[in-house]
Amino acid sequence: MSNPIILGIFWHFVGAASAACFYAPLKQVKNWSWETMWSLGGFFSWIILPWGISWWLLPDFWRYYGSFDMSTLLPVFLFGAMWGIGNINYGLTMRYLGMSMGIGIAIGVTLIIGTLMTPVLQGKFSILFGSAGGKMTLLGVLVAVIGVAIVSYAGLLKERALGIRAEEFNLKKGLILAVMCGIFSAGMSFAMDAAKPMHAAAQSLGINALYVALPSYVVIMGGGAIINLGFCLIRLAVCKGISLKADLSQAKPLLIANALFAILGGVMWYLQFFFYAWGHANIPADYTYISWMLHMSFYVLCGGIVGLLFKEWKAVGQKPVRMLVLGCAVIILAANIVGLGMAA
């Protein structure tokens, strides 16, 4: 396995670790509605950081974006909005199915859809079955889905041991939302593929290959921001029991602490895609569709590791922990299979 491929896998792991940890500071936010917290963190994640970093990278910010016509920008933006819809459905899935079942189904669906539909959109689906490397990466995807399923089952055992139930368990609603979440969340994978002309233009300006995808995030995350911020602001305006005014009327020390924790969570959420770009840049051109599979499977892997480090599995018994470790090992195996496939 070549060094660039190993680096690509490593950076995808780093990005996934940031995604798995981003909610830790958000848990420290007190006396704020989820909508206010998510809006502030998201504003930094989807607007401030993509724009700020792109402004720093690009020699002429406005000329760069003005050089593309709508036929290039619109698909990138719409796929970003698609990803934003997936983010909203993710929270609703947890409400109706619980964390473990919800994550297992949603991540499993988005892993498959985001990975396999990208070569279809590229017109390169034959690579998957027409080469030894393609077949090997397909095997890696299958093994990753099995690993996600095992980790999700371990989480289900954990929830049962701790007596945790979904807020409003509804299998029918939850399954529909989980599948929708999985499909729409794959919009990020599609957006990255649609943004290739933007990546090439950034590279032609002399931007390092590790950073060429970052300017496209202004458009991708702009689509996601409109969906997420619009959803939150509408809820703050119309839903009883929550209001922006009430959230901002807290004591000044608490207000400052809440803002800093929300912003930190948003920064960590953005960093997953910052390092996703680094991982993506090191993946061979014929196998860039594998980036999404690596990111999502490592997200589940890192979530399990974080749970163990924070002693969330301390009182659940040996079987759930054994299943978690097994699932994590299977995901690591999947990453190695995919790496060998790309190197073939």
TrEMBL record:
Catalysed reactions, semicolon-separated: L-rhamnopyranose(in) + H(+)(in) = L-rhamnopyranose(out) + H(+)(out)
Membrane-crossing segments per the record: 6-26, 38-58, 64-84, 96-116, 136-154, 175-192, 212-234, 255-277, 289-310, 322-343
GO molecular function: rhamnose transmembrane transporter activity; symporter activity
Recorded GO CC terms: plasma membrane
Keyword 4Fe-4S among UniProt keywords: no
Membrane topology summary: Multi-pass membrane protein
Endpoints of the signal sequence: none
One Pfam family it belongs to: RhaT
Cellular compartments annotated: Cell membrane
Lineage top rank: taxon: Bacteria
Keywords: Cell inner membrane, Cell membrane, Membrane, Sugar transport, Symport, Transmembrane, Transmembrane helix, Transport
Similarity comment text for this entry: Belongs to the L-rhamnose transporter (TC 2.A.7.6) family.
Function noted in UniProt: Uptake of L-rhamnose across the cytoplasmic membrane with the concomitant transport of protons into the cell (symport system).
Name of this chain's protein: L-rhamnose-proton symporter
Source species of the chain: Samsonia erythrinae
